[in-house]
Amino acid sequence: MAINLVKGQTIDLRKNDAGGGAEFDLATVTIGLGWDIRQQKSGFLGKLLGSKQEDFDLDAVAFLLDANGKVANLGDKLIGGDVIFYNSPKHPSGNAWSTGDNRTGAGDGDDEQLIFKLNSLDARFDKIVFVVSIYQGKQKNQHFGLIENAFIRAIDTRGKEIARFNLSGDASFNGMCSMVFAEVYRKDGSWKFRALGTPHPADSFVEILKQYVNV
Q1: Higher per-residue pLDDT: 171 or 11
Q2: Which single residue of 143, 147, 164, 166 has CA 20 to 30 Å from 22?
Q3: pTM for this structure?
Q4: Residue whose C-alpha is closest to residue 79's, from 66, 62, 92, 95
C-alpha cells in the first residue's frame, strides 16, 4: 500500500516502511508528477472581452548528484550530462530518462514522468533531486500559488505505487515559480525518498541548479 507523505517525511523505497513485509521492485522506478491549474475567476471586463487564461507550461527536471551533492557532468550546455530535462531527456548511461514534455498539464494522472533504473544506476550517483519549474512564469505572472492538486509519486517496476506526496498551492506560494518536490538518495544499500516541497522564486531550473554545481 502506498504511503501518503507529509513534507519532510522520508521512507525506504524498497519497503516503504508501511509494514506487512512487502517489498517493491526498484529495477525501474517511475517518478510521476502532476498538477492542475486553479481556474481564475474572470471579472466583468474579462467576460466582456472574452479573455482566456493562458496555458501554464510546467517542466519536470532531475539532477543526478554525486557523493558531494553536486552535478559532476553538465554536458555540453546541459545536453548529454547529469541533468534530465526537456532538451536532454535521456541520460547517456541509458538508466534515466523523461517520457516527454507536457506543455499544458491537461488530463488526469501524471503530467510528466521521469524513469530511473535504480538498481543499474552507476554507484557515483548518490542522490536525485526533482524540480518542477513554470516556464516563463515571471513573464506570465504564473506561480505555484495558482497550482492545485500537485503531487509527486514513485511507482515500482510492477506498477505498484510506493509513495505519494501531495502539495497544493496557497498564498504562501505566490510568486514562487519553481518547486523542489523531493529527492531520492542511497542509504544502507537501498534508496530513500524524501518529500521536500521547497518553493523557489526562479522560473528557470538553472537558477536552482547553481547550488548543485562546483564553482
Answers
A1: 11
A2: 166
A3: 0.90
A4: 92
